[in-house]
Amino acid sequence: KKRIVSGVQPTGSIHLGNYLGAIKNWISLQNSYEALFFIVDLHAGDENVGVALLTYPVLMASDILLYQSDFVPVGEDQKQHMELTRELAERINNLYGGRKWKKMGGFDCLCYSGDRRGGAIFKVPEPLIPQAGARVMSLTDGLSKMSKSAPSDQSRINLLDPKDVIANKIKRCKTDSFSGLEFDNPDRPECNNLLSIFQLITGRTKEEVARECQDMNWGTFKTLLADALIDHLHPIQVRYEEIISDPAYLDGVLLEGATKATCIADATLNSVYQAMGFVQR
Ligand code: TYM
Asked: For position 208, which CATH number holds?
C-alpha cells in the first residue's frame, strides 16, 4: 500500500476549512492507503515565535520525509511547503543517495557506487489537494481564507460550535445584493464560497447545487445551509464528547500511533546517518 501522511496544528479550534480541506479527505483515503495522521505539537512554537516562522517549513518537510510518504493530503495553503519538501528530498537524494560503505585502504569509507538516484534516501512526496474544498474562505470576507488566527470568530465555523452559534454565524455572514445564486462569478466570492460549502456538506454535485439554488434568495439559502451544517456536524460533535471524556483511551491511541511511527522514523534516520557518514544510533 502507498502511504499518506498529514497533520494539524494543535492550537485554536479546528474549523470548517481544516475539515473540508484536509480532515474529511483523510477519512476516505485511510482505507486505500497506509495512513499516518498527527497533531504537530512541535509546530505550535508559543516560545521563539520569530525563529519558528523561519524553521516551520523545514520542520514540516521533516515530518513528511521522515515517514517516507507517497502522498500528503492537505489544503491549498500548504502547496508552497510541499514544493520545498520535494525540493529538499530531491537535493538530499542527489547529494547523498547511492552511497555505500566500502573498505578503502583498510578503512570503512562512504563511496558513490553507481546510480545516485537508485539509492534514494527520501521518497519525493506529492500533495493531494482536493478539487473542491481546498480553500474554504472566511464568512466575513470571501477573499481571505478561513483561518484559526483571524481575530473574529464570526469569520469561521468551528467544528464544535453549538447549533445556535452556527445558525447565527450563517445568518450574519457576508453576502451580496445580486439576485439568484451562482458559482464562479469573480464578483461574488462569498456566494461561491457558501455554495461550495453547501455542496461539500450535503455531498451533492456542483451542477445539482447550481440548479437548485439559481433562483434562491439569500434568506432561504442561509436557512438551508445552516441546517445542513448543523446536521453534518452533529454526529462529529457527539463522537467528540464521547472520546474527549476518555483520556485513557486517547493516551492509548497516541502511544500506539507513536510506537508504530517511531519504527518508520528510526529506519529513515538510520539510512540518513549512514548515507551522510554519521555514526549509527
Ligand atoms: P493547519 O493546522 O494550519 O491546517 C490543517 C489542514 O487544514 C488545511 N486548511 C484549509 N483547507 C482549506 N481551506 C482552509 N481555509 C484551510 N485552512 C487550513 C491545511 O491546508 C492543512 O491541510 N503546516 C500544516 C501542518 C503540518 C503538516 C505537516 C501537514 C505540519 N507538518 C506534515 C501535512 C504534513 C498546518 O499548519 O496545517
From this structure: 1.10.240.10
d(CA 136, CA 79): 15
Q: What is the pTM of this model?
A: 0.91
Look at residue 114 in the predicted model and tell me its pLDDT: 55
What per-residue confidence (pLDDT) applies to 260?
A: 94
Whole-number Cα distances in Å, 179 to 187, 211, 216, 218, 223:
13, 14, 8, 9, 17
> Does residue 166 sit in the same domain as residue 128?
no
Residue 126 counted as domain residue: yes
Cα of 41 from ligand 1 centre, angstroms: 13
Domain range holding 175? 153-244
Q: Would residue 275 count as lying in a domain? A: no
CB of 78 closer than 6 A to ligand 1?
yes
- 116: CA distance to ligand 1 center in Å? 33
Q: Which residues contact 121 (CB under 8 A, 6 or more apart)?
A: 92, 93, 96, 97, 268, 271, 272, 275
**Average pLDDT rounded to a whole number, residues 108-134:** 78
Instruction: Give this complex's ipTM.
Output: 0.99
Task: Verify that 193 and 119 share a domain, yes or no.
Answer: no
DSSP label of 137: B
**Same domain? 20 vs 124:** yes
The type of residue at 113 is: S
- H/E stretch holding 59 reads helix 49-66
pLDDT 10s digits, 16-50: 999 999 999 999 999 999 999 999 887 668 555 55
**Residue among 74, 128, 192, 200 whose CB has most ligand 1 atoms within 8 A, to mutate:** 74
Average pLDDT, the chain: 91
Determine the distance separating the centroid of ligand 1 and the alpha carbon of 140, expressed in angstroms: 21
Residue 227 lies in a domain: yes
The three cell numbers locating residue 235: 454526529
Q: Which amino acid, one-letter code, is at 214?
A: Q
Protein residue with least CA distance to atom 33, ligand 1 = 6
